[in-house]
Amino acid sequence: MIPFNIPPYIGTEPDFLKEAIENRKICGDGPFTKKCHAWIEDRFGAQKALLTTSGTTALEMAALLAGLKAGDEVLLPSFTFSSTATAVVLTGATPVFVDIRPDTMNIDEQKLEAAITPRTRAIMAVHYAGVGCEMDTILDIARRHSLIVIEDAAQGVMSTYKGRALGTIGDLGCYSFHETKNYSMGEGGALLIRDDKYNEPAEILREKGTNRARFFRGQVDKYTWVDYGSSYLPSDLNAAYLWAQLCEADRINESRLAVWKAYDDAFRPLAEDGEGRIDVPHIPAECVHNAHMYYLKLRDLADRTAFIAHMKERGVSCVFHYVPLHSSPAGERFGRMAGKDEYTTRESDRLVRLPMYYGMADADRDRVIEAAMDYLKR
Question: What's the pTM?
Answer without folding.
Answer: 0.96
